[in-house]
Each structure stands twice: as C-alpha cells, then as structure tokens.
Amino acid sequence: MDLGTIANRIIIAYEGPTGAGKSIVAVVVAALAGLKTLYVVSTLQLQQQLARDFPKAIIIWGREHYECIRFPGLTASDCTHRRHSPCPKLAQCPCRIQKTLALAADLVVVNYSYFLNEANRVGRFSGWALLILDEADLAEGELLKFVSLKLTQHQLEACQISPPEFKTKPDAWLTWAHPTLAKVETQLRELEGRLDPFLEAEKEPPKALMWELIHYQRLYSKLNTFTAWVDDSWAAELNDPERWEFKPISAQRFGHLLTGHSRRILAMSATMLNARDWAENLGLGR
Predict the structure, then answer these.
(1) Where are the domains of the chain?
(2) Euclidean distance between CA atoms 116 and 259, whole angstroms
(3) Which tens digit of pLDDT belongs to each residue from 168-183?
(4) Which 3 state secondary structure label does DSSP give 85?
(5) Which of 234, 6, 259, 220 is nearest to 126 (CA)?
(6) Which residues, at least 6 apart from 110, have a Cβ–Cβ distance to it below 8 Å?
(7) Residue 73 pairs with which residues in a beta bridge?
(8) Domain topology for 2-148+252-281
(9) Which residue in 27, 197, 203, 248 is a FRET match for 280, CA 20 to 30 A apart?
C-alpha cells in the first residue's frame, strides 16, 4: 500500500505473508534505483539471515559484540579512546573498521536498537536515501522501548545511588531525576579522571573501574533521555519494590526518532493490519 507523501517523506507499506520474498523485492528495487539503503530488522538472527541471503550487504552489531584489541577482555562498549588520550590502536579497532565499511556501503543491515541509538545520538546512520523497516509491526514497540526509562535496585546500587523515598509516587521520581542526573554526571567525570593515568601509561584499566564507568554511562544515558522527554502523558509502573519503569502511552510524539532519518521509507510486515493506523501510531503526518 502506497501511503504517499507524508510529512515530506515518501512512505510505502508492503504487507506480505512470511516467505513471500519481501526482502528480495525490497533489496532488488533499492539496487535498481541506485539508492543507498539502510535495512532495519528486529533481531541479530535476522541480520545473520540477511547476510546469508545478500552477501554484499554489510552487517553491523552493537559495540558489545566487538572485542577490544588494545585490552583483551574488554569490548568496544568499554572503549578507552578519548580525544585527549587517543587509543594507539584505533585504526585497527574491529568495531570502527566495520562501521567505516557500513557507512561506505550501498546496503547495510542493522537492528532497531542499534539504529535508534546511532541515528539519534551519534548521527552517522541518519539521512540515508532509503530506509527499510522490516517487521514494521514491531517498530512502535521498539521505539517505546528506546525512549522508556527502566531502573532496577541493582543498577542504582551499582552506582551507589538511592531511589526516592516514596518509590510508588511518580512525582517523587520526577523530583529525584534532575539532581540525580547531575550527581551521575559529576561521578562520570571523576571516573574518567581515574581512568586517564592507566591510558597514559598504556596499562589495562582495572575491570572494576571499567564496569563502574559503564554502569554510570548507562544510567546517565537513561536519565538524560527521561528528563528531556517525560511529561504528563507517560505511564508509571512502580509497584515492584526492585524494578521501576516509566514509558509513554503513545509513540506518536517520538515517531520522528524512527522515521525522521530518511525521505524514503519502505515499511514491510506480514501482519500490518492497517497501514494508515501504523503511520498514525508513529506520528507520521504531524
């Protein structure tokens, strides 16, 4: 179904049963049109399947899937490269090499989680000629997962942070979030300072330090997103004494985080019951 031009984007919804060859049709059309294409799927297994089906496609995973060659035992998600203390093996980094290949390729296959993070926080996977959203019926859920805030008692304890006193009251969390974000940012700077001497001496940082740094980086990212986007339309699940979640009740306000990165979008699904409802749920046309 051709949804036509919506919000300055050309969007086509393609519904077909599993095994009908949707991916082949999409890739062939993209190649014939000469469009640099970013193909988004929901799982690593589907990425692997597409890699087998289309050998010329470049597959890229999240940074945790690439081993650090500077410090064995770490991964690219523990990257110690800093502007003021550059990694001497940066040019050999498997993650950076794969990303360079992907950015230069005509067809790249990523998963939703990687795409949403890279396109909205790093920016290098935005602006492609064609964006293919496979399993598009899952896109709204993937988007809500990306913007939602999930915290656990274990995560806060790892960062030596206490939850608000009244943990079942949403207002208490909203009041807690901003000063906690500032505290996490201060601690991140302190941890970076503790890391620098190891990097300058070309010594592997202690695993405990790296894990602490990662915990704080992840918490900072979550709180930064939450404080920027939360409003009265969000729902809170706060009854579990060790796990708390805030999430928007609708993805409409955040649809641009998924669909705003290309002027041409092909949304494919075996179970897209109503293409126009799908577009409306993602805020297209707003």
Answers:
(1) 2-148+252-281, 152-247
(2) 10
(3) 999 999 999 999 999 9
(4) coil
(5) 259
(6) 38, 39, 40, 41, 47, 59, 60, 102, 118, 125
(7) none
(8) Rossmann fold (3.40.50)
(9) 27
